């Protein structure tokens, strides 16, 4: 790693020092000239930055939920300040390249590309063909309107209990409240009986004291033991039903919360990838933290209090009405006022509560993004801006929360007024009808009415709070109904074969893809075929649809059209069957918290020996052995205890263990040093040479040796052929992309493509030459004119050799070749094929034709397989001997010498022989 240290001494002069770091130690320091003379090869450490086409002149624009805040914060910088800092950076870089940072765009302009001095004012004119990719911003969080419907309550209790449990819960609630009221009523009745007995006994004693020997006063008999027993039984029922009600209620609510959490979790895991593109992580965390927290902690208690208060209030009003029916005259208008006040409060409180919930999400999102980008924030020294933005989010949430508290106080005052009017009405009617009322019942009604003062206010507030808390249930249910991906497992009649895929041939026909119904189509009716074991590079400008190909093949979003792998339609099989058979090495390596063993082999399908072998193949075995716990080493969150290169190598080892026939590579070496880059490229070529490999290129030199390149533009296939052939098109898109890298790099890339093309096609050309020569030999044998055929071949070679020396003689040579070919063809038509006659008797004819090119061991002829080698000294059949004798041939020793092709002139010989073969045909 090289660090450029700059010290500005004056506006027009600056000095620079380069620090070279390796494995945490500084191995060199000095100027560019000093380090160049020292022999340290540090230039290779910097070349990767110049080769990233998607991050240079093509203007790579990226936006994620985590970096969105940083981009917005940086946009607040004054333009003059950005202009000044950018100009300073322009003059501070080396003479090899200029770097311009403006907002989110980063351009690397090579020395060979500069036609004039680059300034910040000319940045906007760089690359007229560049069109920035449309940034997909997060959608605004949806807020429901109106009251929480009864369906939400139904889904809540349905998740926690079935119909039997729910009915049992209702019975226990009513029984507990009935037992509570019954206990008070029995106590009032017992008090009236005791009062009547003591009153009669007191009058009887008073008469006796006046001198009466007897009275006709009846003294009631009160069975105290019976009353005590009944009262004790009622109190026991209150205790029993109360305990059972509480246990059943909290059991149902906790089960409902757990069930809804699991449902939401499963729904999010199975949702389309587009859901995560439009919903920030803070919004999702808010559902799992705050909303689930409300359902676990607050909602059960609040709902239980509301149920208890509601039943108690109904009991109080009922008892007061039974004791004195005149109370209902006042209760009716009070109920009307209560309904109006509560509806007004609930409507306002509900909106405020929803507002509080939505203003809470940005707080979580901003905090999460700040933690993820903490290094970047400190590097740009924008801590103050992020603190200010966090305070703004926090203030907005606090405003909503304070508004919620004030509405609760507003309701409390008005409910106290209603309770005071109800108590006054009960007292007034009890005084008016005192003569006709039972003292015990009057006392009971007045006691209940006084209790209502605090209970009514608390009950109404709890009812409103229950509806507010049910909003959390509503939000959780929203995420429990997300559109799901295709089934993970297909029916047995649509499952692929167990050994699928065997080859890795991919056929895409008329496929289109869009991430959602309201977004544009990113892949537009594309069709292509990739043969087994073929190495395909995928290139294109930003937004061309390269990453969408990964989405298409893995079915992260369901495409339209037909995608087959080894003749199996991948759109008809389960996602597990498809994704398990395709390996991917991402650009950003992903490691999960847990042991290193589980990161390499998540499903425990391989032995430790296989794991160590895979680590050895990516040269990580020694590094892992040096760890205290080896394969059981704990991986920190995001794998931060490993370097980026090590994380990428672990992902590569994971792909090696999978050993799938198809491998997707999203430029696995874009963020690693050149040494790791070379190691990964070498490992991919060696370990995956028998696999179909698709590489999404961010640096062109990594794919120039591919079999073919798939060039995308605006979601369509612009070009698809060998790199060398595509570079021959001056107006081709690939040619333009290559030319943007500079003259030196363009020459290098063209040379890589040419050499790769020649190396891959040399064997095919040699095979064609051998097949052509062999066809000539067999034709001559079948016509019993071997000597003439060899002579003709010699003439053809002489003619072709002279063609290189004299351009004017080209026509004569071609005529000689044509005459020879016509002669052979004419004799072939005049002569009957004796080999077929011999083959009819299922006998073999062994003929020695000497050594030809690389050696031809056998050829398939009309008789089946006719070996070409040494001919047996004795003829196995008299009929064969007679045929050969008739044509003047000796069967004792038939030696055909075709000659050898000079290895130094192999390429020219191949081209000329192909031309000859075309003329012969």
From TrEMBL:
The chain crosses the membrane at residues 163-182, 230-250, 298-320, 326-345, 415-434. One of its GO terms (cellular component) is membrane. Residues 51-97, 799-921 are annotated as: Disordered. It is found in: Membrane. Its main location: membrane. GO terms for molecular function: ABC-type transporter activity; ATP binding; ATP hydrolysis activity. InterPro entries: AAA+_ATPase, ABC1_TM_dom, ABC1_TM_sf, ABC_transporter-like_ATP-bd, ABC_transporter-like_CS, ABC_transporter_C-like, ABCC4_TMD2, P-loop_NTPase. Residues 167-468 form the ABC transmembrane type-1 domain. Keywords: ATP-binding, Membrane, Nucleotide-binding, Transmembrane, Transmembrane helix, Transport. It comes from the Eukaryota. Residues 58-68 have a biased composition (Low complexity). It is a multi-pass membrane protein. Residues 508-739 form the ABC transporter domain. Residues 74-87, 799-812, 820-844, 878-902 have a biased composition (Basic and acidic residues). Gene3D superfamilies: ABC transporter type 1, transmembrane domain, P-loop containing nucleotide triphosphate hydrolases. Belongs to the ABC transporter superfamily. ABCC family. Conjugate transporter (TC 3.A.1.208) subfamily. This is Multidrug resistance-associated protein 4.
